Amino acid sequence: MTSFWRNIFFSKIFCLNCNEELRSGNIPGICNSCLHFFDFNGLNSLDNSLLEVYSPLIYEGMVKDLIYKLKYDGEELIAYTLGIIMADYIKYLKLYDKNTILVPIPLAKKREAKRGFNQARLLAEVIASELKISVRDNLLYRKQETPPLYNLSPGQRKLVLEGAFSFNKGFNNLNKENFILVDDIFTTGSTLNEATGVLYNAGAIRIIGLTAVIALKKEKFDKGHNL
Ligand SMILES: [Zn+2]
């Protein structure tokens, strides 16, 4: 996988955002002047009912456009750039060891077929090859796709997501394994929580969440920036 990504990436010499020719950059695919406008997340983790979630970038401005292009315009190369940033982030925070296993949040089969890929799996593959750890993308499967959760109340979200994920019975129970659940965006945390519950039930010892971006609520965002 590593060489696949590297090869296609090195044939691309223009910034994913502004199309300027890339000379030397800090992050593959993004020129340094665009990188300057990325909103990096100053928070290391979020208090969430079941798990800690880590997200290097804030879902704003240019980063928001990149996520949109990845998910809806099929620009898969963006997953490479975001995956590198995610890998650097958890390396810096020392959140993994060589036995940590990455599990991408699955899409329902129909949705994945329509999109042509699962962006969470692409991200997990890039992170895995950067950190030399493994991905298990068939551990969980999603029985049905869920509607957008952003405007639902916590109770409604729970109801909609209940039973959305299942543990693949092809695997035995998990034994003393550490997992990082990978997704593209953190909004309410409900999806990650639901998947976490399933993995804990199957015997996982420690699970954290890692998403490329976090959508901060307006108040939170403003508060963070006024501090
Ligand atoms: Zn640029």
From TrEMBL:
What Gene3D superfamilies does this protein's entry cite? 3.40.50.2020
Annotated signal sequence range: none
InterPro entries named in the record = ComF/GntX_DNA_util-trans (IPR051910), PRTase-like (IPR029057), PRTase_dom (IPR000836)
**What domain of life does the native source organism fall in?**
Bacteria
Q: Which family does it belong to?
A: Belongs to the ComF/GntX family.
Provide the protein name: ComF family protein
* Organism expressing this protein natively: Halonatronomonas betaini
